Amino acid sequence: MDGVRDGARQQAAGGGGEAFDRLCSLVAAGGVAVVTGAGISTDSGIPDYRGPNGALRRHTPMTYQEFTDDPAARHRYWARSHAGWRRVARAEPNPGHRALARLEQDGLVTGVVTQNVDGLHQRAGSRRVIDLHGRLSRVLCRGCGDVSPRLELDQRLRAVNPGFHVGAAQTNPDGDVTLPDDMVAAFVMVGCRRCGGDELEPDVVFFGATVPRPRVAEALRLVEGARALLILGSSLTVMSGYRFVLRAAELDIPVAIVNQGPTRGDSRAAVRVDAPLGLLLPRLAAAVTPPSARSPVPLPAMRSLAFPGDYPREL
């Protein structure tokens, strides 16, 4: 077994001490596949569900069955999502995102599997990103199969809802805002731009739904080809993320976990650090690459590789 696993597993609050040194050794050797959760985006102003201030305590996300089976629930989703999406779209990558992109550019990280739907890894400059739960910036039509930018839908909704304004309400991790019933009732939804049908849905995996098999297979290939697995900002409560820890354990691939608070995978981790990612990841990136070898500040992902509307700068 890799030497990283030798000895007692370490845990350090604040990202210092022996656990941080062991994390540096693991990453400096390269070949690291990364799985990220909501905890990496909290410093960008996007709340998480299960972290120290997790939204799951006050907000239960909608299930896909509820969305598809109940027209009233679907209408409520779009009203709340319209109110909150622009705040997520305006979010900027934080130092944790940028440090991770630099680790990839320096050849230490082989790719990122993210449970987030905010697109911030790509905006930070990460190139190989698997959006496990989809992207909030895209809209699908179940009726005709059309795929369109969320920005375009936002513009259409603004045109038919000119007086629809929300104040300082808390945005939830899935990009929606809790609204009073009268605002939901007053909201006007539009149909598909191609077929006119009412079966529009966000290009995301709903809470409790199954990730598409080809996407899971691609993510597993990344993990299986890695020398080490690094979990960042995920409690690993749901199987969509925890499965990668289990697969790494089967293949004797060492696992490192950085998260604020306990995770489901702690007992399988060779290294465990409890620290804010926005502080720890820049320290990690600085520690594992000598100044002469460090790449320049990562540039945003090439627009030509992005879906139109993924980077709505005009918001």
Automatic annotation (TrEMBL):
Its cofactor is Zn(2+). GO terms for cellular component: cytoplasm. Its EC number is 2.3.1.286. It is an enzyme of class 2 (transferase). Binds 1 zinc ion per subunit. It catalyses: N(6)-acetyl-L-lysyl-[protein] + NAD(+) + H2O = 2''-O-acetyl-ADP-D-ribose + nicotinamide + L-lysyl-[protein]. This is NAD-dependent protein deacetylase. It comes from Frankia casuarinae (strain DSM 45818 / CECT 9043 / HFP020203 / CcI3). The lineage of its organism: Bacteria, Bacillati, Actinomycetota, Actinomycetes, Frankiales. The gene is cobB.
